[in-house]
Specification:
The radius of gyration is 18 Å and the shape is globular. Helices cover 34% and strands 22% of the residues. The chain has 2 domains: 98 residues, 3-Layer(aba) Sandwich (Rossmann fold), CATH 3.40.50; 146 residues, Rossmann fold (3-Layer(aba) Sandwich). β8, α6 and β9 form a beta-alpha-beta unit.
C-alpha cells in the first residue's frame, strides 16, 4: 500500500496562508491520501526545518516569504527557471534528492492572461514594487513576454539594484531601473506606466503604503497585487475606486498552487467551488 503524501508550506509568518485549506481540498478531490501542513519557520531555523523534512520524509513543500532565495543552497537540484529567477517556491523530494522549481512566474502569467486576454504584456511599461522572491519571478515572467521597460522600486534600494543587475545578465535587451520606494522620480514613472504590480507584503492584514502610488498613476493603468488575503487589498480597493482595471492576487495564488500540486502528485487539481483555474 502506497504511503500517504506528506506535503506542506514553509514560511514566516503563515497566519495569512490559505495553502493548507486549498491543497488538502485538492487531495480529497483527486482521491489521494495525504496531508498538507503549515510549517511556520523563522529565518534562523530554516536549516533545522530542512533536516526535519529529510528525517520525516516530506514528499514536497511550498516555500514562501522570507525563504524563497535562502532555500536554494540547501537543495540538490534546481530547475533552469528557478536558477535564473534566483528563487524557489516549490520543492519536491525525488528519491533521496531535493528538487527546487519555481511556479510563481507561470502562475502570474496565467492569471494575467486569463483576466486581460486583449491586453498583451508585450511592449508595456511596468512599475514593480518589491525586490524579493516573488518580484524576481514576476520580472522573469515580464521579460519572457518582452515588455518595453521595468522600473523596480523597493524600500531597500540596494536590493532593487542587485535584482536589476541580475536580470540584465539574462535579459539585457529590456531596459530596467532601480529606485528607492520613496523616490520622487517614482511618480514620474507611475504617470507613464501601463501596469503597476505590488510584489511586497504591504496589504497583508490590510496594511497600507505610507504614500499611495495610485495618486500618481496614469489613467486606466492596470493595478496588480500578489496579496490574496484579503481578496481585495487596500491598494486594489483604492485602484478600483479610481477607475483602474485590477488584477487580484488570488489568480496567481491558484495557478502557482496548481502547478506545484501537479509536480508533487502528477495530477491536475480540480478547482474548488468559487475558485477557477482557467
Amino acid at each position: 500500500m502506497k504511503k500517504p503524501l506528506l506535503l506542506g508550506v514553509v514560511g514566516f509568518p503563515l497566519s495569512h496562508s490559505q495553502s493548507p485549506d486549498l491543497h488538502n481540498r485538492w487531495l480529497r478531490t483527486v482521491h489521494l491520501s495525504g496531508v498538507y501542513l503549515p510549517f511556520e519557520v523563522s529565518p534562523s531555523k530554516l536549516k533545522r526545518f530542512f533536516r526535519m523534512a529529510q528525517k520525516v520524509r516530506l514528499d514536497g513543500f511550498n516555500v514562501t516569504v522570507p525563504h524563497k532565495e535562502k532555500i536554494i543552497p540547501l537543495l540538490d537540484i534546481v530547475s533552469k527557471a528557478a536558477k535564473t529567477i534566483g528563487a524557489v517556491n516549490t520543492v519536491v523530494r525525488k528519491r533521496a534528492r531535493w528538487y527546487g522549481d519555481n511556479s510563481d512566474w507561470q502562475g502570474y502569467l496565467f492569471s494575467y492572461k486569463a483576466r486581460f486576454k486583449k491586453k498583451p504584456l508585450k511592449g508595456k511599461r511596468i512599475v514593480l514594487l518589491g525586490a524579493g522572491g516573488a518580484a524576481r519571478a514576476i520580472v522573469y515572467a515580464l521579460c519572457h513576454e518582452k515588455v518595453s521597460e521595468i522600473i523596480i522600486a523597493n524600500r531597500n534600494a540596494g536590493r532593487a539594484e542587485k535584482l536589476v543587475r541580475h536580470f540584465n545578465r539574462h535579459f539585457p535587451h529590456i531596459p530596467k531601473r532601480a529606485l528607492p520606494l520613496n523616490s520622487k522620480k517614482l511618480g514620474e514613472f507611475l504617470a507613464k506606466t501601463d501596469l503597476l504590480i505590488n510584489a511586497t507584503t504591504v496589504g497583508l492584514g490590510n496594511s497600507r503604503f505610507s504614500k499611495s502610488p495610485i495618486r500618481s498613476l496614469r489613467h486606466k493603468a492596470i493595478v496588480s497585487d500578489i496579496v490574496y488575503n484579503p481578496p481585495l487589498s487596500p491598494l486594489l480597493k483604492e485602484a478600483k475606486k479610481s477607475g483602474h482595471p485590477i488584477l487580484p492576487g488570488v489568480g496567481m495564488f491558484l495557478h502557482q498552487a496548481a502547478l506545484s500540486f501537479e509536480l508533487w502528485t502528477g495530477k491536475k487539481p480540480r478547482g474548488p467551488r468559487g475558485m477557477t483555474l482557467s
